[in-house]
Amino acid sequence: MLLGVSRTSKTPLSLYLANQNQRVANLPIGPDLHIPEELNQVKKDRIFGLLNTPEKLSKIRKQRMLSYGLNADTPYSDTKNIRVELDYAKKLYRKIGCLTINVANKSIEETATIILESLNLDTTTFED
Q1: 54 SS3 class
Q2: Global pTM value
Q3: Assuming Cys at both sites, which of 12, 19, 70, 81 could form a disulfide with 65, CB separation 3.0 to 4.6 Å?
Q4: What residues make up the domain containing 107?
Q5: What are φ and ψ of residue 113, in 5° steps?
Q6: Total number of domains in the chain
């Protein structure tokens, strides 16, 4: 189970892990989003909290808004709002007791390796 605020690479990481024969779910989180009760049924060692820096998230979110033809400067891309989201995420991760991974300077493959190693699973990639 991958948890993270918007644009922390949950979906691409989920797809990568699924291609490594792992069953994966991802859940967007934020102060205004509901956390389903089913999360309490997942073992904490199978939950991974993803983080990024406010600055990188702001840049990524601004690019996303521009790609939609919208104004880049919105509450969605504002670093102050992003800090609130990240603080919420950190508190949730501490409450759950899950492994937290800052993806700011990591590739999808590096993050996947951290997850697979924490689960004591094979981290070798598929061969042609």
Answers
A1: helix
A2: 0.92
A3: 70
A4: 2-118
A5: -65, -40
A6: 1
